[in-house]
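Q: Give me the 3D complex with FE2/S2 (inorganic) cluster.
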Amino acid sequence: MATATAISRHANGLGVNERTDNWWAAPLSVLFGLLAFIVYSTWAAMQGNHYSVGMSDGFGGYLSPMYSPLVYILEGVDGGAPLSHALLGAWPAWWPSFIPASPAFLILAFPGAFRFTCYYYRKAYYRAFTATPPGCAVGALPRKTKYVGETGLFVFQNLHRYAMYFAVVFIFILSYDAIMSFFRDGQFGVGLGSIVLLINPILLGMYTFGCHSFRHLMGGRRDCFSCDVRGKVAHGNWSWITNLNQNHQLMAWLSLIWVGGTDLYVRLVSMGVITDPNTWGV
Ligand code: FES
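A: Here is the predicted complex, encoded as structure tokens.
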């Protein structure tokens, strides 16, 4: 019969450990995966162009999730959207000239704050970026000061429960964009981009609705699940959110990759690098 040896202590010294598995593979993958996304999303946000395909004054077209919703629009940029799609109108004169005039900068803080403070990502980047520690039972970076965790330097992580409300709103916004992607100048149709944009809010929804804070909101805050009808409803909520929550890490990655991939797809179609197969014949 196979036996496993429990390792119950952290070794002293960065990376020192008694583990026999490839413990370094996960933090290394996270390091490169998150760095790749941060570099791409920063670059894409700074472009301020090629974020839409087929958006006219009629309804429909593809809109990159990194630019949605369009709060202000700078007219006349390649691959941009017409002014009629702006929530608040033309690009404001008060915008600092040293920051690129990109609609992405007006919205990315909301999903960014949600991701950055997510319980899963905290574990991932604490291990991958700060090695505190890099893995279970693996020696951490030596520290001179007492660890105060999220009551000290990282106290802002507690904003997660509030960032969650914005993330839920974004699911509805991106679902609207997915529906719009099945129209071009008001005419119904289907393109590969429609499918790409449809999968995006589904994956984001599975990530967002599996959030620990969302589970607490929908099914927590009770001392007794079986005492009354409201408790039983809360337990039902808690149970289905728990099903999603068990795959939270997987959904965190799939939804992140899909958001980046969706922006890239829209960008490449808009630039004419690739052609979107669709029923509109455009
Ligand atoms: S815990 Fe990951 S999104 Fe809330």
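A quick observation: The chain has one domain: 25-141+153-271.
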